[in-house]
Write a structure and sequence with these properties.
With 409 residues, the chain is of the alpha/beta class. It contains 14 helices and 23 strands. It binds cytidine-5'-triphosphate (CTP).
Length: 409
């Protein structure tokens, strides 16, 4: 069982980075870079004060996007910058550095500059990383502002102690960019919708031995299942992966991975403590049949049977469907070679599933081995949710989103 480092909870997150007029503004360039390195999409808003400390060009170059600092985008044409749209765009509004003045403006609900307007119109959560001199930070006014903001649900990224720009030493220095990124990762992780959910996931093919060197198998690469494991981890799930033989590294952040070869071995792993899982997802292309007899040595050419008698393998997903309790969600996949709707609906009912994901090799770019997939999800009432051809990473995110919608119904 392998334990890998968690993948970043910042992956794919839209971060509105507000920069205000503190000497620590120079660190915002490194912060923007660090957030992007961890997979976030960053847009920057600066106050007029911040522009005194760091050039907008630095931040626009790093984020490959214009920096917002004014209500008018283009003074000559009078083009307006839509602070409402920006406020809706972000998953979080991170103000780093946040000056004493900006904290006070947030408390008052002031709208004296563009950044403060975005603050008032943002629906996403706000986090602030204060940066100021030790006495300003310790002042009752600042402390009471921070307490008010914390009461409103604003995340406070406590400053560090150390040498300050004033030459004094004490608490008030903005946390280093990497530490802010770490803080934000934990903050997102704590809010992840699948936090505390245990997920059991099968992936890849199985191989059913004929002798010690030959087997019955299929072309499954495991890519869809591994992408799904990553997408589930990103939403905070505790993922336990059971994989057939695949050429893929352990997905980052999974709680455990068991590598198996046969359907029987996969079944043994999949039955274990099934009742302790909240969600079980079968992406594995389990061989439907195995040779009734296998040789433990290599059969030579003249020893090979003309006919290989087969017997069915255990149906893992059907077992889960049978055992399923009210608190559990069981999801299946159906890979078909025709349009597959009738077959997918029959599997959904027969295996007692909460929903089924259909993909058909009849669609270009879908199926085994490819990096893309095109899926349709069927609910038990027959409702179909059809998706475009996408990368397997995006398909996995769509499936997880469907799961989240299903769980909050
Ligand atoms: N499945 C499973 N164990 C098996 C066979 C299938 O867990 N022995 C799961 C697959 O992981 C998938 C779903 O059942 O989620 C449907 O698999 P599929 O091979 O399409 O269907 P089968 O039930 O095998 O039916 P058929 O081969 O007749 O299409």
């Amino acid at each position: 069982m392998g334990y890998a480092a968690p993948s970043s909870a910042l992956h794919g997150k839209r971060i509105l980075l507000g920069v205000t007029g503190s000497i620590a503004a120079y660190k915002s360039a490194v912060l923007a870079r660090e957030l992007q390195r961890r997979g976030a999409i960053v847009r920057v808003i600066m106050t007029p004060g911040a522009i005194e400390f760091i050039a907008p060009l630095t931040l626009s170059t790093l984020t490959d996007h214009p920096v917002y600092s004014d209500f008018t985008e283009n003074k000559d044409s009078g083009e307006w910058t839509n602070h409402v749209d920006l406020g809706l765009w972000g998953d979080v509004f991170l103000v780093a550095p946040a000056t004493a003045n900006t904290l006070s403006a947030f408390v008052q609900g002031s709208c004296d500059n563009f950044l403060q307007a975005v603050h008032l119109s943002s629906r996403c959560p706000v986090c602030v990383a204060p940066a100021m001199d030790l006495d300003m930070f310790a002042h009752q006014a600042t402390q009471s502002n921070l307490a008010t903001l914390a009461n409103r649900g604003v995340g406070i990224i406590e400053p560090d102690s150390g040498l300050l720009a004033s030459g004094l030493e004490g608490k008030g220095r903005m946390l280093e960019p990497a530490a802010i990124a770490d803080w934000l990762e934990i903050w997102f992780y704590e809010r992840a919708p699948l936090k505390g959910k245990r997920v059991l996931l099968t992936a890849g093919p199985t191989q059913e031995p004929i002798d010690s060197v030959r087997f019955i198998g299929n072309h499954s690469s495991g890519k869809m299942g591994f992408a799904l494991a990553r997408a589930l981890v990103q939403q905070g799930a505790e993922v336990h992966l059971i994989s057939g033989p695949v050429q893929l590294n352990d997905p980052a952040g999974v709680a455990s991975i068991r590598r198996v070869q046969t359907a029987e071995e996969m079944m043994i792993a999949a039955r274990e403590n099934f009742h302790t899982y909240d969600i079980a997802i079968a992406t594995a292309a389990v061989a439907d049949a195995r040779p009734k007899q296998r040789s433990f040595t290599k059969l030579h050419r003249n020893e090979l049977p003309e006919v290989i008698a087969l017997e069915p393998t255990p149906d893992i997903l059907a077992h889960w469907g049978e055992q399923k309790k009210a608190h559990q969600t069981v999801i299946g996949f159906a890979l078909e070679t025709d349009d597959g709707v009738a077959s997918a609906m029959s599997k959904l009912k027969r295996k007692n599933l909460d929903f089924i994901v259909l993909n058909s090799t009849a669609d270009r770019g879908a199926g085994f081995g490819t990096d893309t997939n095109q899926i349709t999800i069927f609910d038990p009432n027959g409702k179909a949710h059809k998706f475009e051809l996408k990368s397997k990473t995006e398909v996995a995110q769509d499936i997880v989103q469907h799961l989240l919608n299903y769980l909050t119904l």
